[in-house]
Amino acid sequence: MGGGYEDERLARAYQPGNEMPEAALRAWTELICSYGPCSASAVLDVGAGTGIFSHSVARRLQRSVVVGIDPSKPMLAEARRRIAHPRVRYVAGTAEALPIRSGVFDLAILSRVIHHLPDPRACALELRRVLRPDGVVVIRTTFREGLDALVYDYWPSLRVADRRRFPSQQEVVDHFTAAGFAVRDSTSFAQPVTTSLGEFHARMSTRPQSKFTQLTDHEFAEGMTRLGADAEASDSATPRPVLERYDLLVMSAG
Predict the structure, then answer these.
(1) What is the 3 state secondary structure string of the chain?
(2) Choice between 15 and 61, residue whose per-residue pLDDT is larger
(3) Which band of pLDDT confidence, cut at 50, 70 and 90, is reported for residue 8?
(4) What is the pLDDT of residues 70-129, one digit of tens each?
(5) Is the pTM of the predicted complex or chain greater than 0.85?
(6) What are the structural domains of the chain?
(7) What confidence category does residue 1 fall into, taking pLDDT thresholds of 50, 70 and 90?
(8) Do residues 111 and 46 lie in contact, with contact meaning Cβ atoms separated by under 8 Å?
(9) Could you tell me which residues come within 8 angstroms of residue 154 by beta carbon, excluding any fewer than 6 positions away?
(10) Which of 118, 200, 207, 223 has the fewest Cβ atoms within 10 angstroms?
(11) Rounded Cα distance, 148 and 151, in Å
(12) pLDDT over 60 (residue 2)
């Protein structure tokens, strides 16, 4: 990550602004872990941020050690403060130069990270190095061809910017196959992130993602006004959960 995530304000806002209902987090964690070897004893969370998945995976795989790596010290400080776990270790480092020895991990997770990486191929080579021969990488992202998040309805300029910075699925596949990986699976999965549009509106008010720094105060306020009006109309009837869909690309080292 890095970039805007070195901002301590954004690091503090990230966890409450991006957490999801427990059932949704559990569903995501079970899906991700289902791709790892049955006896996975070591899991690597690259771009761990505030540790949402590091913590959840440690709870799900009760005999596994999880290492969460992120270049942002403020984000890791939030992870240690908010959701510490005895089998999770947080380490400062980059995806292109992982500060760990070779052949250690069974499963590596990159959740909402791939578009932040300056050199995805170097990351792929590093993951090939640190994984065991039967290791698996699970990439959770939204590929360029499928940018459909709700935020784009209220801040269209963010979709334009994300089309420039998010990779296509084929680009990611090419980086990882060049590093010796093989495609194992590709799918999409959607889960609730908030229980209502009103809750989503309240969450966005903190600008909890780095992309919001691209907006002027006027652009942000206009989007919030439209979102607030829609939330009031929606929630006055029957509140419905807000879903977010992500793509999963699973690469095998074996």
Answers:
(1) CCHHHHCHHHHHHHHHHHCCCHHHHHHHHHHHHHCCCCCCCEEEEECCCCCHHHHHHHHHCCCCEEEEEECCHHHHHHHHHHCCCCCEEEEECECCECCCCCCCEEEEEEECCHHHCCCHHHHHHHHHHHEEEEEEEEEEECCHHHCCCCHHHHCHHHHHHHHHHCCCHHHHHHHHHHCCCEEEEEEEEEEEEECCHHHHHHHHCCCCCHHHHHCCHHHHHHHHHHHHHHHHHHHCCCCCCEEEEEEEEEEECC
(2) 61
(3) confident
(4) 999 999 999 998 888 999 999 999 999 999 999 999 999 999 999 999 999 999 999 999
(5) yes
(6) 3-144+163-192+245-252 (3.40.50.150)
(7) very low
(8) no
(9) 223, 224, 226, 227
(10) 118
(11) 8
(12) no
| Sequence letter at residue 80 | R
CA–CA gap between residue 2 and residue 209 (Å, rounded): 12
- The backbone torsions φ and ψ at residue 253, rounded to the nearest 5 degrees and listed phi first, read -85, -20
